[in-house]
Each structure stands twice: as structure tokens, then as C-alpha cells.
Amino acid sequence: MSVGYGLVFVVLAAGAATVAVAAPWPATLAGGASAVSFVIVAVAYFGTGPRLLGKRADGRRTVGGSFGRG
Description:
Blueprint: H1 3-22, H2 25-48
Helix pairs in contact: 1-2
């Protein structure tokens, strides 16, 4: 897919993980959730493709979303 975009999302995930480790409780939860989300998008850009996000190759969403129906 696009390694450049994947690297951007890895950097964003690292920043969010830093917030999750260094911040007090509410920000820990938000930082951790953000880090996980950024990692999932990075993995999609690194090669698993739009299917990981419930999309077709042309970018349109499938009827069943990420469950692959449709």
C-alpha cells in the first residue's frame, strides 16, 4: 500500500502511547485507545489493505462493514 502513510500513523501511535504512559487516568485511557486505533490504520497502510477497515479496494464501505458481508 503506502509505506509513507503507514510511518505517519506509527509515529502518531507512538505519541499517543507516550501520552497513555505519562498522563493521569482519564488521559491514559484516551491515549491508549488512540494508540491502538493508529496502529490498526498503520497496519492497513503497510499491506493488509482496505479490507481490514471494512472497505472494498475502491474505498467504498461494504454493507456489513468490517465483518465482510456484502
